[in-house]
Amino acid sequence: MPKVSEDHLAARRSEILDGARRCFAEYGYDGATVRRLEETTGLSRGAIFHHFKDKDGLFLALAHEDAMRMADVAANQGLVQVMRDMLAQPDQFNWLGTRLEIARRLRTDPEFARAWSQRSAELTEATINRLERQKSAGRLRDDLPTEVLVGYLDLVLDGLIARIASGHAGENLSAVLDLVEESVRRRD
């Protein structure tokens, strides 16, 4: 049997993730059955699960891929820019609406919660590091601990995700993000 190149495997994995993103966005986490994943990706379950252990593994790989992309933006431009990117390209992030569904699993499934936490750690770490740098440069409020600012921005991020997922990403959300950004800036 001929060997498959690493480039081919990486391309197939990326193809599966792209299809899974669409499937999770359309049907939600629970509704994205293996059959629907097969239909959306155009691949067999064998091909899909050759790359991913199971549906959770596929979902968590997708979460990790997006968390890494968002962490890069957060590290260089801040978490508010991540949110602006979500508004500019909601189709790239609409699968995150499944967070509403998986919140239940985060409360009831410790193994899933641990794996999810590991996948989102990069974004949290990048956000903390960026906020600390901005504080040191005198650009951010210094009357609040960094952990409070992170919690605040995470809360806004979750709300934005819920808005995008429900189809209510109206024009005023950009102005809301301006307000959020202004609220964490240092006041002279």
From TrEMBL:
<dbReference type="GO" id="GO:0000976">
    <property type="term" value="F:transcription cis-regulatory region binding"/>
</dbReference>
<dbReference type="GO" id="GO:0003700">
    <property type="term" value="F:DNA-binding transcription factor activity"/>
</dbReference>
<feature type="domain" description="HTH tetR-type">
    <location>
        <begin position="10"/>
        <end position="70"/>
    </location>
</feature>
<comment type="subunit">
    <text>Homodimer.</text>
</comment>
<keyword id="KW-0804">Transcription</keyword>
<protein>
    <submittedName>
        <fullName>DNA-binding transcriptional regulator, AcrR family</fullName>
    </submittedName>
</protein>
<dbReference type="InterPro" id="IPR036271">
    <property type="entry name" value="Tet_transcr_reg_TetR-rel_C_sf"/>
</dbReference>
<dbReference type="InterPro" id="IPR009057">
    <property type="entry name" value="Homeodomain-like_sf"/>
</dbReference>
<dbReference type="InterPro" id="IPR023772">
    <property type="entry name" value="DNA-bd_HTH_TetR-type_CS"/>
</dbReference>
<dbReference type="InterPro" id="IPR001647">
    <property type="entry name" value="HTH_TetR"/>
</dbReference>
<dbReference type="Pfam" id="PF00440">
    <property type="entry name" value="TetR_N"/>
</dbReference>
<dbReference type="InterPro" id="IPR050109">
    <property type="entry name" value="HTH-type_TetR-like_transc_reg"/>
</dbReference>
<keyword id="KW-0238">DNA-binding</keyword>
<feature type="DNA-binding region" description="H-T-H motif">
    <location>
        <begin position="33"/>
        <end position="52"/>
    </location>
</feature>
<keyword id="KW-0805">Transcription regulation</keyword>
<keyword id="KW-0678">Repressor</keyword>
